[in-house]
Amino acid sequence: MPEISPELLSSVIHPRQSDTHKGDYGRVLLIGGSDQYGGAIIMAAEAAINSGSGLVCVATHSINLGALHARLPEAMFIDWRDRNLGAMIGQVDVIVCGPGLGQSDQAIKLLQLLKVNLTGEQTVILDASALDLIAKNKELMPTRSKLIIMTPHQMEWQRLSQLRIPFQTDSANLAALRALVPGSKGVLVLKSNHTKVFDTDGNIYTNPLGNPGMATGGTGDTLAGIIGGFCAQFGGKVNSVLAAVYIHSWAGDLIGQDHYVVRPTQISALLPRLMKKVAEKL
Amino acid sequence: MPEISPELLSSVIHPRQSDTHKGDYGRVLLIGGSDQYGGAIIMAAEAAINSGSGLVCVATHSINLGALHARLPEAMFIDWRDRNLGAMIGQVDVIVCGPGLGQSDQAIKLLQLLKVNLTGEQTVILDASALDLIAKNKELMPTRSKLIIMTPHQMEWQRLSQLRIPFQTDSANLAALRALVPGSKGVLVLKSNHTKVFDTDGNIYTNPLGNPGMATGGTGDTLAGIIGGFCAQFGGKVNSVLAAVYIHSWAGDLIGQDHYVVRPTQISALLPRLMKKVAEKL
Amino acid sequence: MPEISPELLSSVIHPRQSDTHKGDYGRVLLIGGSDQYGGAIIMAAEAAINSGSGLVCVATHSINLGALHARLPEAMFIDWRDRNLGAMIGQVDVIVCGPGLGQSDQAIKLLQLLKVNLTGEQTVILDASALDLIAKNKELMPTRSKLIIMTPHQMEWQRLSQLRIPFQTDSANLAALRALVPGSKGVLVLKSNHTKVFDTDGNIYTNPLGNPGMATGGTGDTLAGIIGGFCAQFGGKVNSVLAAVYIHSWAGDLIGQDHYVVRPTQISALLPRLMKKVAEKL
Amino acid sequence: MPEISPELLSSVIHPRQSDTHKGDYGRVLLIGGSDQYGGAIIMAAEAAINSGSGLVCVATHSINLGALHARLPEAMFIDWRDRNLGAMIGQVDVIVCGPGLGQSDQAIKLLQLLKVNLTGEQTVILDASALDLIAKNKELMPTRSKLIIMTPHQMEWQRLSQLRIPFQTDSANLAALRALVPGSKGVLVLKSNHTKVFDTDGNIYTNPLGNPGMATGGTGDTLAGIIGGFCAQFGGKVNSVLAAVYIHSWAGDLIGQDHYVVRPTQISALLPRLMKKVAEKL
Question: Three-class SS string for C115-132?
Answer without folding.
Answer: HHHCCCCCEEEECCHHHH
